[in-house]
Amino acid sequence: MTELWERTAADLASLVASKQVSAAEVAESCIARTNEVEGDVLSYLTLTPEAARAKAAGVDAAVAAGEPLGPLAGVPMALKDIICTEGIRSTAASKILDTYIPPYSATVAQRLYDAGGVLLGKTNLDEFAMGSSTENSAYQVTRNPWDLSKVPGGSSGGSAAAVAAGQAPFSIGTDTGGSIRQPAALCGVVGLKPTYGLVPRYGLIAFASSLDQAGPITRDVRDAALVLGAIAGLDPKDSTSLPGPVPDYMGALDKGVEGLKIGVVKEISGEGVNPAVQTRFREAVQILEKLGAQVGEVSLPTFGYGIDIYYLIAPAEASSNLARFDGVRYGLRIDGADVENMNRNSRAAGFGPEVKRRIMLGTYSLSSGYYDAYYLKAQKARTLIARDFARAYEQFDLLVSPSAPTTAFGIGEITDPLTMYLSDICTVPSSLAGAAAISVPAGLSADDGLPVGIQFMAKPLDETTMLSAAYAFEQELGLLPKPPLWSPS
Amino acid sequence: MNPTEAPDLVTTIGLEVHVELKTNTKMFCGCPVGFGGEPNSRVCPVCLGHPGTLPTMNEKAVEYTTKIAMALGCDIAPRSVFHRKNYFYPDMPKNYQISQYDLPVGERGSLEVEVDGEFYTVGITRAHLEEDTGKSLHIGGGGRIHDADYSLEDFNRAGTPLVEIVSEPDITSPAVARAYATELRSILEYLGVSDVRMEEGSMRVDANISVAPPGERGKKVEVKNMNSLRSVFRALEYEEKRQREVLRSGGSVTQSTRHWDEKAGRTQELRTKEEAFDYRYFPEPDLVPLEPAVEWLRQLREEQPELPIERAKRYQRDLGLSSYDAGVLRSTKALGDLFEQALAAAKKADAKQVSNWVTNDLMSLLAAVPEGTKNPPLTGSNLAELVDMVAGGDLSKSQAQQVLQKTLETGRRPREIADESGIKQVSDEGALEAAIDAVLAANPDVAERLRSGDNKPFGFLMGEVMKATKGQGNPKVVSGLIRKKIS
Ligand SMILES: [Zn+2]
Predict the structure, then answer these.
(1) Where are the domains of chain B?
(2) Domain B429-486, CATH number (from 2.60.60.20, 1.10.10.410, 1.25.40.20, 2.110.10.10)
(3) CA pair distance A174, A452, nearest whole angstrom
(4) In a 3-state reduction of DSSP, which class is residue B153?
(5) HEC readout, chain A
(6) CA A187, A190, A196, A202: dihedral to nearest 10 degrees?
(7) pLDDT in tens, B152-186
(8) Which of A32-41, B249-258, B367-376 has the highest mean pLDDT?
């Protein structure tokens, strides 16, 4: 018998709406499942079972009263702990926010609450989303449900692991250079990074403002469409959020890939990508061809500069965004002889080494005398990448590549930050271009049996085409087998 | 010439003026803008810089800044950009200030000022929009940020829209600097965009002043903490003199920031500028650039009020008023508007008469009313009625003064007040003749002295007649009648 915690968000929503199960039963199932595996996976930083029960009861009352229900009514969810939730501790996995309880909720969180979502807890991440393995969390290292000795990827590692481990049917991650897609790929789940501006940033603790986007991590593409529909759309509190109606993502799923022109990005499909990953990726491309897509190779000459550009722009913005953590108004305060020393002591104690590294990198690239050579030049190069993408989209409807150069690597295996940065080589360029992208499971590596992901990249705001292709692919390939952790030992 | 004596020295001054805009809400959040109040009572997650919050632009602030830039003759940028100015200070919630850098709202303007009948044009480098900081209170110890026992922060002011107006270093004397600040304040008041209260900090003036031989560049000294127009003048006069003395005695001026001590009447060195602070400006990624629509700009231009200096020129040119009177009438927009409304409504009085009532009697009465000249409690039609009553002989000047006072207090119409309290002037000769005859009859000796050519008791007779008419006799008519009767 299928347990409730195993069901998708879409299934649960319809089960609850049709009174086949109660939201309370669904919540209890997920709470129990969470407790069962949390000791192994360590996905969560904060669990909110009481709030979940209260919310579920509210949904059940609404169902009983015949009130109109949101599209996610009674569906449990997990939010990355970089998303502010009113009254619930939100740490960004940093000691500097250890005690921080936001006085407001992020727009994304609020929209999910309004849609009837039931919050189970806040998930682990690399501190301030800076990392690709979740090892940079100040609290714990989340483990990959496929192999507990491996990382889940990052920075949304807790969100991806929670979904992969059956703790929550869906979660929300944030993606700055691949932080949704790479962990989704490594954990064998679906991860969608929306077009920059589609999902409001209000309430996401900022890492790199010009790149940050929140998006769904789900077990299948249909759920990604469902959740995206609930969180997308203009927010007057975010000046960079985009106007225009939110398309019917669910309705567009069945359009298929037939006749779509799909470009395989030459620059990240061969060298630098693990051969076993390449194999699965090539097979995935063949499936797309078989489904009627017109596949060709496309070259984006600037693609290879992505990581360099990213590590000039993102830390620069981060160095400024993280300046507010000074011990004055909230968060950790370590006293000092004067205000300046209090600031210094608080930041020294509150930030981890990777965060400090990036603050220094960013401070340097913004410094007078270096600004033109680094930050400004990187911004110009960024426009070249966007131009490369635009040119590719003149010929192709979608671009595809592996989602990550490797499968999940061992905890503690990568110690050199620069090597770690290369984990995002496949995902960073589309982030810089502001385009939409999704990672979908493409099978297991023949080497280690760990999941491999294929990334579909779409034109800005063309999530519908991207989702329909991803859905067709997923239908053809079939869902991955469940990770070993799935069935109780 | 004494070799140690420097040749003629030239003073160069540039002013940087910060103006808080009187928008209803702060620049990037919905908190109300205000002065004072319970500390941290006008704050929200956005203006406290909570994690995850984002700024949203106050369109009124953009409109006001654009109006200011237009009034200063600036080029309005078709695309202007906000930058982050990064530095740590406890009263700045995000530890960066959202400001403007290389693409401000307005650039390349100018301002004409008048000093003793001479006109000077001061270039405006730029006018840009930024957010204000909170306020720190350093308690105990030395009372400054580095030596206090502790500091308290009030973020009520944090996020108030602030316009920075930077002049070119075109100002050649403290008097011109004061005139510039005065004129600027007047323009801002005319535009209705700020309270421009220097004592409350809604207008803050900083100056750069240097003194050097002609053609040479002096060391720039920044002067801060000038909290009134008077202190702008005093501080710069002091600083000009100080630098001249340093140079004349063969010394050199240190590039520095100095603090004006109003009580001591001198400037004190705060810090020397060894190196420029690196603010690591970069474009604010949370905001989109401003790209004002041409139609909107055209509309703003149409709505621009006449500038005070233009108004003063018009009063002299078209109405024949003196430079002094025109200067008083233009000193606030409300006063000039009142004058014009009264003039338009007046049926008997002319511009000179209306102007005299405003610049003399009304001004002295308004001195007792807080913000009186900015917000005179009097309508143009009431003023016109009063001045017409004087011009028509219905009220004497002193009666009119009484009535004006009552009108200011009650807001009621002057004629009503005069009628009710029986204040009127009697000019009817028949009515006055009886009173004069009675006075002359009662004082035959005095009448005799007058007839014999001794003019001294004339005043006494006038007084008696006025007493007999309860002060209502028109003095001109009364004196004419007395003279007629004794001749
Ligand atoms: Zn506020």
Answers:
(1) 3-295, 306-421, 429-486
(2) 1.10.10.410
(3) 20
(4) strand
(5) CCCHHHCCHHHHHHHHHCCCCCHHHHHHHHHHHHHHHHHHHCCEEEECHHHHHHHHHHHHHHHHCCCCCCCCCCCEEEEECCECECCECCCCCCHHHCCCCCCCCCHHHHHHHHCCCEEEEEECCCHHHCCCCCCCCCCCCCCECCECCECCCCCCHHHHHHHHCCCCCEEEEEECCCCCHHHHHHHCCEEEECCCCCCCCCCECCCCCCCCEEEEEECCHHHHHHHHHHHCCCCCCCCCCCCCCCCCCCCCHHHCCCCCEEEEEHHHCCCCCCHHHHHHHHHHHHHHHHCCCEEEEECCHHHHHHHHHHHHHHHHHHHHHHHHCCCCCCCCCCCCCCHHHHHHHHHHHHCCHHHHHHHHHHHHHHCCCCCHHHHHHHHHHHHHHHHHHHHHHHHCCEEEEECCCCCCCECCCCCCHHHHHHHHCCCHHHHHCCCEEEEEEEEECCCCCCEEEEEEEECCCCHHHHHHHHHHHHHHHCCCCCCHHHCCC
(6) -80
(7) 999 999 999 999 999 999 999 999 999 999 999 99
(8) A32-41
B97 CA distance to ligand 1 centroid (A)? 15
Structural domains present in chain A: 4-267+278-299+390-477 (3.90.1300.10)
More confident residue, B380 or A169: A169
Structure tokens at B462: 């006038």
* CA A182 to chain centroid: 8
Which ipTM was obtained for this model? 0.96
**Which pLDDT does position B443 carry in this prediction?**
83
User: What single-letter amino acid sits at A334?
Assistant: I
Q: Give B-chain residues touching A338 at CB under 8 angstroms.
A: 145-148
What is residue B437's predicted lDDT score, i.e. its pLDDT?
A: 82
Enter the pTM of the model.
0.90
Predicted confidence (pLDDT) at residue A489 exceeds the cutoff of 60: no
A contacts of B287 (beta carbons < 8 Å): 239-240
Two tokens, residue A237: 């509190």
Q: How many CB atoms lie within 10 A of CB B421?
A: 12
Chain A interface with B: residues with Cβ < 8 Å: 83-84, 90, 92, 97, 100, 102-104, 106, 201-206, 208-210, 236-240, 316-317, 319-320, 323-326, 328-330, 338-340, 343, 363, 366-368, 371, 375
**In this structure, are residues A307 and A404 in contact, taking their beta carbons and an 8 Å threshold?**
no
pLDDT in tens, B113-130: 989 889 999 999 999 999
- Closest CB to A236: pick one of B48, B56, B93: B56
CB–CB of A238 and B54 under 8 A? yes
